């Protein structure tokens, strides 16, 4: 700087100390930038019109497959949204979750309950895209999954939003990384925030993405410990549950429940993508502890109340969070990615 403080001139040791502090600060900033660079660079390879010349009809082709599948079963809607989330959180948005075989991702942990209807939807969408002569083997399964996710949300009553495209499909899918990559049903707010922050997502992003539970179901084993006290079991963090709802859920999931038994995550409007999920949390009717904690913890309650009262605010936050989610760990160039001919196996 051209001007100097006279005080700094009279205290060279302080000046030296400040210089050292500034150097440390610059070093930290450079380190943070270097850490963030791969994600920024990868996201920079995406664009909304990526297939404008190679497959201009890709969005219509995927949307047609989605519409046909949802006419057969609504299960494909929440299943596809969950599929996309699991894919992006485990290895980045590279469709590695679709790879099928012993030891692959969807043979482990929470991925073992991924919806067959969602997997079938992506298979059909891929076939529809490749059946177009101008598109054959030019669109990645990762991009098809991203587009299909947007379409199921929109067709279930949620917002429509532009999707960035240009992802390559990953060549690796291993079960070893699944367990530590996805949130657990008993997670506290701190655990949720930590896991989402690792993926570049804020607490508001996390609460907005949790709103995807406005459609879909969960199995009894994910919340049964909120319904009963099990002798000898380790205590589990459990936010309060509405007593009438507790009795109702005990009827759905008795102690001898079937592993196939499920319950709706949103008891208000389970077949519509809206802000009803947040209203269930206000009523203490959240099934999963990791859902109800968003209202139980004062640090996140205001956001839940805001989304419960203002669906437009929820939709806007959801769209913003989905854009960030879709950029996690994407592959846009290099030997670590490809365009799979079949979504369930590498070329």
Summarize the structure.
This protein is 49% helix and 3% strand. It has helices spanning 6-10, 12-44, 58-72, 76-91, 116-130, 141-155, 189-198, 203-210, 243-252, 276-282, 289-296, 298-309, 311-325, and strands at 169-170, 217-219, 262-264, 337-338. Helix 8 (203-210) crosses helix 12 (298-309).
Physical arrangement of strands within the biggest beta sheet: 1-4
Identify the overall geometry: globular
How many DSSP H or I helices?
13
How big is the Rg? Answer: 23 Å
Q: Could you tell me how far the N terminus lies from the C terminus, measured between alpha carbons in angstroms?
A: 58 Å
The appropriate CATH architecture of the largest domain is: Orthogonal Bundle
Overall mean pLDDT score?
85
How many DSSP E strands?
4
Total number of domains:
2
Specify the helix fraction band.
40-55%
- Sheet bearing the most strands, described? 2 strands, antiparallel
H/E series = HHHHHHEHHEHEHHHHE
How much β-strand is present in the residues? under 5%
- CATH topology annotation of the largest domain: Peroxidase, domain 1
In CATH's first tier, which class of the largest domain applies?
Mainly Alpha
Spans with pLDDT under 50 lasting ≥5 residues?
1-42, 107-111
Structural class: mainly alpha
């Amino acid at each position: 700087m051209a001007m100097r403080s006279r005080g700094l001139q009279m205290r060279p040791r302080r000046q030296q100390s400040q210089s050292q502090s500034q150097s440390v600060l610059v070093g930290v900033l450079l380190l943070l930038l270097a850490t963030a660079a791969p994600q920024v660079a990868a996201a920079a390879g995406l664009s909304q019109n990526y297939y404008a010349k190679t497959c201009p009809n890709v969005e219509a082709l995927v949307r047609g497959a989605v519409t046909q599948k949802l006419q057969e079963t609504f299960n494909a809607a929440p299943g596809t949204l969950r599929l996309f989330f699991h894919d992006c959180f485990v290895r980045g948005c590279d469709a590695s979750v679709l790879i099928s075989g012993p030891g692959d991702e969807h043979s482990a942990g929470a991925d073992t309950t991924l919806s067959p209807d969602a997997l079938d939807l992506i298979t059909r969408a891929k076939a529809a895209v490749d059946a177009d002569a101008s598109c054959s083997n030019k669109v990645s399964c990762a991009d098809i999954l991203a587009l299909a996710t947007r379409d199921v949300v929109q067709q279930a009553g949620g917002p429509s939003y532009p999707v960035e495209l240009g992802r390559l499909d990953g060549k690796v899918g291993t079960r070893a990384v699944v367990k530590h990559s996805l949130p657990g049903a008993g997670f506290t707010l701190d655990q949720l925030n930590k896991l989402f922050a690792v993926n570049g997502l804020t607490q508001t992003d996390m609460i907005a993405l949790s709103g995807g539970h406005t459609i879909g179901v969960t199995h009894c084993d994910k919340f049964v410990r909120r319904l009963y006290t099990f002798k000898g079991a380790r205590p589990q963090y459990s936010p309060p549950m509405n007593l009438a709802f507790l009795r109702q859920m005990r009827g759905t999931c008795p102690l001898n429940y079937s592993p196939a038994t499920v319950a709706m995550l949103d008891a208000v409007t389970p077949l519509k993508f809206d802000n009803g999920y947040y209203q269930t949390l206000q009523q203490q009717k959240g099934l999963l502890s990791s859902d109800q904690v968003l209202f139980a913890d004062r640090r996140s309650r205001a956001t839940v109340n805001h989304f419960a009262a203002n669906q437009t605010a929820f939709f806007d936050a959801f769209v913003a969070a989905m854009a960030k989610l879709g950029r996690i760990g994407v592959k846009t160039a290099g030997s670590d990615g490809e365009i799979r001919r079949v979504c369930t196996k590498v070329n």
